[in-house]
From TrEMBL:
Sequence ranges assigned to domain Aminoglycoside phosphotransferase in this UniProt record: 14-227
Name under which the protein is recorded: Phosphotransferase family protein
Matching Pfam families: APH
Length: 260
């Protein structure tokens, strides 16, 4: 990264799973750099969903480097996820026609539940696991029988990973949602369900959704549970592939709690 900014800049890894993010500082100037970030970062920046994009540079090898303003602030803690600003920003994302148009232009098509289930059922992992793992067998059956109860909805841009670590609150109280590599066009219940199930007590779901701008009804309840079970099954598979036995065991216990 030194040859992009100059030797006077101090550059250090910013962490993360991909190892493609960096901090850069020179005197009072601070930047967040990333290699091959989401191709619709410019729209996210224009919408105020991520920190401001300053420049984009394409390297000779085809890689694209983006630089954003580095803002002093903090990641949200689990307890912060009840904040109305979180609900309001998620609604803004789901309501954005600009984001949807951009994602569709770069080739993203709506992820429909019947297609997600079909891919899961044809996976060799779940074919094998459903034979000897009772919870996975019950979960897959729940997804099958639950398909007919899922009503047609308006597909929107979903983030896909609303973990509290991806939410930033600046020192000037600006809220941002970062790490858009897994963005998709899908049922908004994917984001909403994972957030509510992970962070908000059920008795407060109605209050949180009021800040988001909708009411809790039977359709949303069913769709949220369907997608949470689906995503939990994917987590079990992922932890198995990564040989993370402790996390896999936790996910299996969580799946059982969803089915009880």
């Amino acid at each position: 990264m030194d040859y992009i900014l100059g030797e006077e800049w101090e550059i250090s890894p910013a962490g993360g799973a991909t190892g493609e993010a960096y901090f850069a500082q020179h005197n009072d100037k601070k930047l967040f750099l990333k290699r091959n970030s989401s191709p619709f970062l410019a729209v996210l920046s224009a919408e105020g969903i991520v920190p401001k994009l300053i420049w984009t540079k394409r390297l000779e090898n085809g890689d694209v480097i983006t630089a954003q303003h580095w803002l002093d602030g903090r990641e949200l803690k689990p307890v912060d996820m009840h904040m109305k600003e979180v609900a309001m920003l998620l609604n803004k994302i789901h309501s954005s026609k600009e984001l949807l148009d951009m994602l569709m232009r770069i080739g993203k098509s709506p992820l429909k539940p019947e297609e997600l289930l079909q891919d899961m059922e044809t996976s060799s992992y779940f074919k094998l696991e459903s034979v000897h793992n009772h919870s996975i067998k019950i979960a897959l059956n729940y997804l099958r029988t639950g398909l007919e109860k899922i009503e047609d909805v308006e597909y929107v841009v979903c983030h896909g990973d609303i973990n509290h670590n991806n939410w930033l609150l600046s020192n000037t109280n600006q809220m941002f949602l970062i790490d858009w590599d897994g963005a998709m066009v899908a049922d908004p219940a994917i984001d909403i369900g994972m957030l509510l199930y992970s962070y908000i007590p059920e008795e407060r779901w109605g209050e949180w959704l009021a800040h988001y701008g909708i009411e809790l009804d039977v359709s949303l309840m069913h769709r949220m549970k369907w997608y949470v079970i689906y995503q939990t099954l994917l987590s079990i598979q992922w932890f198995e592939e990564k040989k993370s036995s402790e996390q896999k065991h936790y996910a299996e216990n969580y799946l059982q709690s969803l089915l009880d």
